[in-house]
Amino acid sequence: MKAIRRYEGALMWLLLIFMIVYPFIMGFRVEEPSGIARDYFVKKSGWSSDIFQYYKEVALIVFSVVLAVLLCVGTALASVVEEKLPGRYRIDGKVLGLTGVFLLLNVLSCVLGEYNEYALMGLFLDYEGLAALVGYAVLFLAGYILLGSGRGMSAALAGIRGLTVLILIGACAECVAGPAFNIREVALALTPERYVHLLDNMRVDYHGSLALTFSNPGYFGGVCALLCPVLYGVSLVGKRRLLCAFDSVLAGGLFFCIVMSGSSGAMYAAVAALAAETAYIVWVKRHLAKYWAVLAAAGAAAVFFLVMGNTQIMDGESAAARLGGSVVNSQYTKGESVFTVDAITLTDGELCIESGERTLDVCVKEGSFGQGLEDILFTDAYGKEIGSTDKGSFSQLGGGYEEVKVSFDKETLVLDLGYQDPLEFYCYDGELYYVDFNGSLLSSIPQPQMKSLESFYHLFTGRGYIWASSLTLLKECLFLGKGIGTFPFYFPQSEVAGMLNVHGSANYCIEIAHSWYVQTAVNGGVIALLCLLGLFLLHLYRGVCLYAVYKGGKPARGRAKDSAQAYCGGMEGGMDEGCALFFGLIAFQIAGIVNNSVVTTAPVFWILFGCSMGYLAGQRSFAAKFVESVSNDSEQKMF
After folding, report:
1. Which of 46, 83, 130, 607 yields a CA-CA distance of 20 to 30 A from 123?
2. CB count, 10 Å around CB of 321?
3. What local confidence, expressed as pLDDT, does residue 564 receive?
């Protein structure tokens, strides 16, 4: 029996060591995309590169396979020794059912999808395929089994501290020296010899935001939003003063990282979780024993800003300005001299742009082939020709259309409307063709899929535009999705008016959904999304039911005779840690509204989510036994 427990303890620490080390795995990889992906993303070079994701997915797959085998061995040994399946290896039926249906729907969506060549390993944009989803499920169940106890919860907290220490060390190093891959020695160590010659053209640049090895500042901010409420919570209610002070410093450092990531979604998620957690401790537990921990966390964040305020990452920006930028993070701000595009159409080679009460019509003059700007005719809504003034490298329209600048280069009409990037139209056989983001020629311009939703386009740095444009796509994914990695192939690309007004350019592709939930619905179907939300809601419900009556190990006052409250005095340890983790997981789920699920952060979440779900299930089981024992005692007293 002791040998089995030691075996399980070894697996538990193996899982936590993986959680600590995994986010920092990276390596340089070059791939030649195939199929439709080549047409969409790499038409010019024919190659794509990755630093932070591919090798993480490989490590995830290998580790999850090994862990699954070791868990099966542990289950078999424990069943033989105890002559039955131990309770700690039993997974709650609802949890197992929702997880299984979620995976099954994703498998079916990929198998029956049109682009199933990307199913196993995912598209090269994020390398999150079916193999990664199965890996998440293994980590989730491992966290449920190995960490879902008071002892496991305490061990998980130790793992969170270790991961946070490495994150803060990496954050400070990146503030001072820039991204690690930009250091020549590091890049050489991570690059196979056959690709070394490419390093001269490789540079990681997040425009002053922190990302470490998480591939994107938003993803980095999301994982910090997960960890920050955990350490903040235990610092307020912990019993060891020095450890509480240490946790306060770590929490303050993580808040600094959230601000420096520039992710407004992570900022809102973290602030919401921290506020709810503080309210819970003050009003539900009716005390804030270590109020100084709040000041310590705020002081630690301030110290980080003071120390790092003169490093290269700040680029002369003040801490207050950086904080404001993370709260309100705009994707694109339109200038004053812009010919605002309300609608744009291309019909039979003739272009029509509507801007308020003005209309600009553009076509190739009759009898011409479009060999120069003199062959292009500009007219207003009444058919009146609009003149232009030569400005050297371009011509400027007149007659109330002065915001529009035009030029001609090798049979291509360049139309500058004042946005960040101009529009290009190829002239062929007397007609205009729109040149889209990957150089393809379109005889018509795609129109908005959903009308009257323009007011939502600018939400969350333009994500509202992506979500609104995805609504018609979701109608096709009610039962099964389009398959993993296929979002950019089905999204209505090249919708010029929306792209210009939201992003300032129509010259790039919408590659990802920028939302875990939209991503899940498109990949596996709306039912798969409901399964995922079902897991989250089950966790939320059980957490509220447990922690709402917990008063620091003492029965609740008032209706203490109610068994659902009275049993709190007899529960095993880990309640304070479990409650803090509960708020951290909610913060990550909130951040998932604006962030995709990715291999750089998801494994950390699923391990800790499994830990919390397993712990809640264990306490729920204890409650049922307690209620049964109380009931039996009452019956015996009656007779």
Report:
1. 607
2. 11
3. 44
pLDDT value at 343 more than 90: yes
Report the alpha-carbon distance of residue 25 to residue 139 in Å, rounded.
17
Tokens of residue 350, six digits? 């003739």
- Kindly calculate the radius of gyration of the chain based on its CA atoms and give it in whole angstroms: 28
Q: Are 280 and 547 in contact (CB under 8 A)?
A: yes
CA 166 – CA 605 distance, rounded (Å): 17
Of 247, 224, 227, 226, the C-alpha closest to 235 is 247
- Using DSSP, state whether 143 is helix, strand or coil: helix
Q: Which amino acid is at 227?
A: L
Write the DSSP string, 559-570.
STTSHHHHGGGG
DSSP states of 20-38: HHGGG----EEE---THHH
Position 326 scores a pLDDT of: 54
CB 547 within 8 A of CB 539: no
Condensed to tens digits (0 to 9), the pLDDT of residues 464-505 reads 899 999 988 998 999 999 999 999 999 988 899 999 999 899
pLDDT band, residue 38 (cuts 50/70/90): confident
Residue 70 burial (CB count, 10 A): 17
pLDDT at 614: 94
Q: At what angle do helices 516-524 and 459-475 cross, to 10 degrees?
A: 20
509 phi and psi angles, rounded to 5 deg: -100, 140
Structure token digits, residue 143: 């966290």
Amino acid 311: pLDDT: 74
State how far the Cα of 204 lies from the Cα of 25, in Å rounded to an integer: 16
Contact 157, 29 (CB under 8 A): no
- C-beta neighbour count of 627 within 10 angstroms: 15
Characterize the bridge pairing of strands 405-409 and 412-416.
antiparallel
d(CA 74, CA 69): 9
Do the beta carbons of residue 380 and residue 361 sit within 8 Å?
Answer: yes
> How far does CA 574 lie from the centroid of its chain?
29
Q: Can you list the positions of beta strands (E) in 386-506?
A: 388-390, 395-397, 405-409, 412-416, 423-428, 431-435, 441-442
Mean pLDDT of the chain: 86
Q: What are phi and psi of 233, to 5 degrees?
A: -65, -45
State the Cα–Cα distance between residues 326 and 514, nearest whole angstrom: 17
Residue with tokens 């993580």: 254
pLDDT tens-digit readout, 509-536? 898 999 999 999 999 999 999 999 999 9
**Beta pairing, strands 29-31 & 405-409:** unpaired
Q: And the tokens for 287? A: 């005390």
The pLDDT assigned to 279 comes to 87
Distance between CA atoms of residues 255 and 268, nearest Å: 11
Residue with tokens 């390596």: 27
Contact 419, 338 (CB under 8 A): yes
Backbone angles phi, psi at 488, to 5 degrees: -65, -20
Residue 557 clears pLDDT 50, i.e. is over it: no
Helix (H) or strand (E) holding 11: helix 2-21
- Tokens representing 290 are 């270590």
- Region for residue 545 given its phi and psi (left: phi exceeds 0; alpha: psi -120 to 50; beta: otherwise): alpha
* pLDDT above 90 (res 380): yes
Q: Which two tokens stand for residue 34?
A: 């195939």
- Please report the sign of the dihedral spanned by the C-alpha atoms of residue 422, residue 427, residue 433, residue 437: negative
Strand partners, 428: 431
